[in-house]
Design a protein that fits this description.
single chain; 435 residues; alpha/beta; eleven-stranded mixed sheet; 13 strands; 14% strand; globular
């Protein structure tokens, strides 16, 4: 491909990104009539949702962030330095979506990556979700990113694309804040008010509801982060005052932890509508059955007793070979056997919803999206693939799981519970047909 053509491609992407940025944080408008839309009130019950990072950038995409989340040590991205352990399959992507790298496939051809702020790419991801029957995503929003203007612009651009694609493809979506590296309530409050007032968060038909309110997730309530409880109490109060239901993402040891901070974490959890403990990397194919009995089942029972809905997290495998220079293929996928075992146990548990981590997490090797069957070779870096399975193997498994969970959509949703936010316990309620 000539330098002239490449320059034209980059210019097109930059112009596209600039136009999108001009429209970011605007209320959603229907493509059909251009008018504002109203709530559809789609419940999280019965849905299989994926985490969607949306954090990949490339030179020329308009972000001026380089190969963000692709780079390895020393901000390099080449055959010896990379930050991803899976390589995206761009076989059905347009030329304007493919960003060239220094890496090469075994046949000598250029290895391309994508940008999460390219409208065609995000639209394709959500089209895959529709084609394979996956319900939707929790769109990740990192406080540490939105604390600076450049990061905020990129996050806003990606968020706008996610909302548009979800509505165009009939997929569900909800916002998930990630507090990793930033527990500054002022940053959260400023952003939240902007999303409510300008973006009209929760007002488009694709947005997820829970207990008759739009849902927002806040992730990072860990006892190992001493400032977490105070931040989360403030954030929950603000979100609930805005008329939203709250889902919390916590550490996996939230129920069994000891000490003052652990007690405070449980007190905060008792004020939530949904709990979703982070279990990625906590077990493998051999150890999962014991973990399920020791941790997941008691967690579910604790939440059920207190009218807290429980959203289990599952993942296909885990690898930190290039990102951390260690632990390559640390938790093998076993051609999907590991993933399917988690699906089966969570369904037997009676969980009425499921969270798959992640749709596009190439960094830690947990992505379920299509990955290249013959990733780059020739340097120090190594990349996993789904071989001998097809590039879309985990999209198929996730879609099949979503069809199973549809059998639980007819179960009645628990009624909202009136209680004082900040209390450590909730009053007992009467459930009907709870499974």
């Amino acid at each position: 491909m000539s330098k002239k053509i490449l320059a034209g491609m980059f210019l097109l992407c930059s112009i596209s990104a600039t136009l999108i940025a001009a429209e970011i944080l605007q209320p959603f408008k229907s493509d059909k009539d251009g008018s504002g839309t109203t709530h559809k009130n789609r419940s999280l019950y019965g849905l299989v949702m994926c985490g969607y990072q949306g954090w990949f950038n490339a030179p020329g995409d308009g972000s001026k962030r380089g190969f963000n989340h692709y780079q390895g040590q020393h901000d390099k991205f080449d055959a010896d330095h990379a930050g991803i352990d899976l390589w995206p399959d761009l076989s059905d992507a347009g030329d304007d979506e493919k960003f060239p790298t220094k890496l090469r496939h075994a046949d000598g051809s250029t290895a391309y990556v994508y940008s999460s702020r390219h409208p065609k790419t995000v639209a394709r991801h959500f089209r895959w979700m529709r084609e394979y029957g996956i319900d939707g995503v929790f769109a990740q929003r990192f406080l540490i990113e939105i604390s600076n203007p450049g990061g905020e612009e990129n996050c806003n651009t990606v968020l706008t694309l996610i909302r548009a694609a979800a509505n165009a493809e009939g997929r569900a979506w909800a916002l998930m804040y990630d507090t990793t590296g930033c527990e500054d309530f002022a940053v959260f409050k400023r952003d939240w008010l902007k999303l409510i007032q300008q973006f009209k968060l929760g007002s488009d038909p694709a947005y997820v509801y829970f207990r008759r309110r739009p849902l927002v997730a806040i992730w990072g309530l860990f006892a190992s982060r001493p400032k977490s409880p105070a931040f989360f109490r403030q954030a929950i109060e603000l979100v609930c005052r805005s008329g939203f239901s709250v889902m919390l993402g916590s550490c996996s040891s939230w129920r069994t932890g000891h000490g003052k901070v652990a007690d405070e974490v449980r007190a905060v959890i008792n004020t939530a509508d949904i709990l979703s403990p982070w279990t990625v990397g906590r077990y493998n194919l051999q150890t999962f059955p014991a973990y399920y009995e020791r941790v997941i089942k008691p967690d579910f029972a604790y939440c059920r007793k207190r009218n807290i809905a429980y959203l289990p997290v599952i993942f296909p495998g885990f690898s930190w070979g290039n990102l951390k220079q260690r632990d390559f293929n640390l938790i093998p996928r076993h051609d999907g056997t590991f993933f399917q075992l988690q699906i089966d146990r969570c369904f037997a548990l009676g969980a009425r919803m499921l969270y798959v981590a992640m749709f596009d997490e190439l960094d830690e090797g947990t992505a379920i999206m299509k990955v290249h069957p013959s990733p780059p070779a020739g340097g120090r870096c190594r990349f996993l693939s789904n071989a001998p399975r097809e590039p879309d193997h985990y999209l198929k498994l996730t879609g099949a799981a979503a069809r199973r969970w549809k059998t639980r959509t007819e179960l009645p949703e628990c009624s909202p519970v009136s209680f004082r936010r900040g209390s450590t316990e909730k009053p007992a309620i009467v459930r009907k047909n709870w499974k």
